[in-house]
Amino acid sequence: MPTQLFYGTPIPVSLWFISRNKAQKGKTLFIDARKMGTMVNRRLREMTTEDISKIAETFQAFDDGMIEDVKGFCAAVTTADIAKQGYILTPGRYVGIEDQEDDGEPFEEKMARLTGELSEMFKRSRELEDEIRKRLGAIGYDI
What average pLDDT does this structure show over 4-22? Predict the structure, then answer.
C-alpha cells in the first residue's frame, strides 16, 4: 500500500491475507499498490474507488486462475519461487518495475544535461544559503 494511507504512520503498509482454502494452491498473489491513491492533504492519502476496484479485480482474476502478471503492479508467484528468494515477501521483489518509456534522448546527452542542471541548482543553493546567513546576521544571529 502507498505511504500516508493511515493517520498513525506515514510509511507504506503491507497487508497480508492468508487463507488455507484458496483457489490457487501453491501460489501467492503479490500486488504493489505503492503508486496508488490520491493525496487529500499534506498528511493523508486516500485510495480512490478505481484503485480499490483495480485491486479487487486483480484478486478476482487470481482467484479464478486468469491472472496475468503486470510489471510493477502484480505477480502470481509459486511457493518454490518464493523459497528461491529466501521467503522474502516484499511485493517489489516479485512484481518488478514497470517498463519505462524511452524518451529518445541519448544517455550521454541526458547525463550532460542533468548534471548541468544539478550544477546550477547547487550554485543557486549556495547563493540562497549566503543570503539567509546575511539576513540572520543583520538581526543578530550569526551562524
Answer: 79
